[in-house]
Amino acid sequence: ENNEINGNWVGISFDYQDNSRISNNNITGNSLYGVLSRNTLNAQDNWWGDPTGPYNVTFNPGGLGNEVSNEVDFEPWLSEAVIFDEVGIQRPVIIIPGILGSAQKNGEWIIDPILHTYDNLIDTLEANGYVEDVTLFTFPYNWYQSNVLTAFELKNKINDVQDICDCARVDLIAHSMGGLVARQYIQSNYYENDVKQLIFLGTPHEGSPKAYLTWEGGKISSDANGSLVNFIFSREAKKLGYNDVFDYIRNSPISSVKELLPIYPYLIDKATGTYKPFPSGHPINDFLLNLQASLQNLYNSNVVLTNITGLVNPTSTINDFRVVNSSDLFLWQHGYPEGFFENIGDRGLIFGPGDGTVPEESSTTIQSAQFELAYSHNQIPAKGAGLIFKVLTGVTPTQVFDEFTGFGFELLIFKMLSPADMQVIGPDGKKIGKNFNNNEEFDEIPNAFYSGFETDDEYITIFNPLEGEYKAITQGTNNGGSYTIATGLISDESIIENEFTAQTTPGQIQNISITLSAGEIEVAPEDFIAPHILINSPQLKDYLRSETLPIDVVFSDKESGVFSTSLNLDNISAGNNSSIDLFFQPLGNHIFTAEAVDFLNNTAHQEVEFRVIASPDSTILDVERAYSLGWITKKAVKEDLIRKLKNAIRLEKRIDFLEEQFLDKPKIVKRIERIENRIDKVLARAIIRDLENQRNRNINDQAYFLLLEDINWLINN
Question: Pfam family of this protein, just one (predicted)?
Answer without folding.
Answer: LCAT
